[in-house]
């Protein structure tokens, strides 16, 4: 079986778009003429290895599919299950899955082609017996390309070994962030479900535990992560009592619940498991069995990513891609296509804007336009002096912006008084630059604007792109670049929206946290995808114009 997994998954991936449920039935015979019935499979060590292999192969060959290994029929017939009598059949009534199967696939090898109809009918009936399926359920025979020689060798080796039973427990616990549920999470969850007979507790990292995460702004909301977990576990083992609890520290419920017997860890979280046991003993509770699972390798990881399958790699792959589709911008001219590039102070906006400029965009530097409105003699110049006092003047009668900054950053009211004066003036200059770009036949403008969202300028742009870096890094960069104190840098950052709030309004997110080469690749990816979107829009527009003419 292990060698058949990858070929079966790749041929299944050609037919399946979203969810691929895996139902295990070793030795299922669909060609005997009699209707096969589902049976219980005992929990053995090999099964947990098979599950690991399945998710690992799925990540390699069909990463776009949501694979779920179903365990309803896995149970030792003799296992006591909270006092209830175990039925003879694992499916006394068909199980309802969160996505009703529309097609059932098998790699059952036909003895002769004439058998095909009988086998597909038999499989359809078998599936309907186990799961609630779509009324139009179809059954399809797969013809995976198997590696026959190796398979024979493996078969020989395996037949010599005896199936080793797997120790199971009434109550099992795991903890994690479970962001963008991937193969490694699913392996952890599946094996935990295999080990648990009665209750499965899942501690899910909440706010306080996310502070140190890479690209924490892109971590899915707690409610979405728990909803996905609940759905997954209910699908794979509906008989379990699932309890999902927030984790505000590394221990959570695992150090206070007396009934838990086992904690499932990986090589990386083994130390955490040991720390849990230390606390449990301090709390007068018995230590937990540490069941360690293997970390899945990510065959597609890049040089800068971790070797294991990880949510941070998945988050970093989102950088530069379209996270949410742009809102309708029919109130502004379709060209030039305007990108509003924003992000906290020191987040590297300007360097990204320059790279976009090198790729062909017209860069509009709003900080610089902002400085232009302070020119002596302008309306804004007089109003600012009226509002903030003439002690702001340099010897040459220009406004001392640094001194003005000290008056407004960290004081929302004063900052608002300033921006009420200057934003409308800057907006006029911006609109002029966009019109000029249009006249010159330019395709894309990048509006490099520090506080685009705070100013409500989203109606001037087609898309919002946000750059993020952790606050500590931003403070370091600002103090170094602008020669201001840490306190001034923090005050400036606190005058702006938080990274998370900005990301909430972003169509595309970028980060300059890593080496310049990584940023360059991200920007290029974002630019290439943008070109496709613009082309797509133009084609759509042409189509509408054509049909209107017809
Ligand atoms: C809608 C827009 O984004 S327009 C562009 C931003 N400009 C404004 O909002 C106008 C009000 N601000 C100003 O006039 C100036 O920033 C001043 C006078 C307060 C300070 O001037 P300077 O000392 O020359 O600083 P400078 O203009 O270079 O801005 C320094 C940082 O302050 C931040 N900043 C600028 N304006 C604001 C603001 N209104 N709120 C919060 N932070 C701001 C910027 O993020 C910038 O850092 P970054 O380049 O790393 O992004």
Write the layout of secondary structure elements.
Elements: H1 2-13, E1 19-22, H2 45-61, E2 66-69, E3 103-106, H3 116-130, E4 138-141, H4 148-160, E5 169-176, H5 183-195, E6 196-205, H6 207-210, H7 222-236, E7 241-247, E8 262-266, H8 270-282, E9 289-293, H9 311-318, E10 337-343, H10 349-358, E11 362-365, H11 366-372, H12 379-388, H13 401-408, H14 412-439, E12 444-448, E13 463-467, H15 471-482, H16 486-494, H17 499-503, E14 508-510, H18 516-549
Parallel strand pairs: 1-2, 3-4, 5-6, 5-8, 6-7, 8-9, 10-12, 10-13, 11-12, 13-14
Helix pairs in contact: 1-2, 2-5, 11-14, 12-14, 15-16
Question: Can you walk through the features of this model?
Answer:
This protein starts with a helix and ends with a helix. The chain has 18 helices and 14 strands. The model is unreliable at 545-550 (pLDDT under 50). It has three domains: 2-160, no CATH class; 169-293, HUPs (Rossmann fold, 3-Layer(aba) Sandwich); 319-366 and 427-549, Rossmann fold (3-Layer(aba) Sandwich). It has helices at 2-13, 45-61, 116-130, 148-160, 183-195, 207-210, 222-236, 270-282, 311-318, 349-358, 366-372, 379-388, 401-408, 412-439, 471-482, 486-494, 499-503, 516-549, and strands at residues 19-22, 66-69, 103-106, 138-141, 169-176, 196-205, 241-247, 262-266, 289-293, 337-343, 362-365, 444-448, 463-467, 508-510. It is of the alpha/beta class and 550 residues long. The longest helix has 34 residues, at 516-549. Strand 5 (169-176), helix 5 and strand 6 form a beta-alpha-beta unit. The chain is 42% helix and 14% strand. Helix 12 (379-388) packs antiparallel against helix 14. The strands form four sheets. The chain has a five-stranded parallel beta sheet with strand order 7-6-5-8-9, sandwiched between helices. It has a five-stranded parallel beta sheet with strand order 11-12-10-13-14, sandwiched between helices. A two-stranded parallel ribbon has the order 1-2. Acetyl coenzyme *A binds at residues 345-346, 349, 366-367, 370, 401-402, 404-405, 408, 415, 418-419, 422-423, 426, 449-452, 455, 457, 492, 495-496. Residues 345-346, 349, 366-367, 370, 401-402, 404-405, 408, 415, 418-419, 422-423, 426, 449-452, 455, 457, 492, 495-496 line the site of acetyl coenzyme *A (ACO). It catalyses: (R)-4'-phosphopantetheine + ATP + H(+) = 3'-dephospho-CoA + diphosphate; 3'-dephospho-CoA + ATP = ADP + CoA + H(+). Residues 173-316 form the Cytidyltransferase-like domain.
